[in-house]
Amino acid sequence: MTAGSFGDGFQFSVEGRTRENAADDPRARFRSVSPGFFAALGIPLMAGRDFTDADRNGAERVVIISVSVAQQLFPGQDPLNRHLMWTDGVMRFIGITTEPRRIVGVVADVDDSGSIRGRR
């Protein structure tokens, strides 16, 4: 999960964060990836673990977040084993569950927008 945009991304909340108004929930993009994705692209795992083959439908829901999201939401704290919940109404529309997901890893920030700047 990375800070960024699907437009402005999808709204989410994390356990332990006080919410005054759901409309103020932070936003982030999400990607569905398989085990080994980060290693294959050379994206360093900063804390925790990568996805495994055991992380499938029917198993505990887990998520890996970017280091910038971890620093923003858990300054000076360990984000591992905390829970994140998608709160954006679009999630149910596109078939993504809003059940809590345990944070199992933190990866370096990546610009995966697909834009290549400075090349012709």
What does this structure look like?
- The chain is an alpha+beta fold and 120 residues long.
- 12% of the residues lie in helices and 22% in strands.
- The protein has three helices and six strands; from the N terminus they run ββαββαβαβ.
- The chain has helices at residues 37-40, 67-73, 90-93; strands at residues 10-14, 27-28, 45-48, 62-66, 83-86, 101-107.
- Strands 1, 2, 3, 4, 5 and 6 form a six-stranded mixed beta sheet that branches.
- Residues 1-7 and 115-120 have low confidence and may be disordered.
Identify the notable features of this structure and list them briefly:
single chain, 120 residues, alpha+beta, six-stranded mixed β-sheet, 6 strands, globular, disordered N terminus
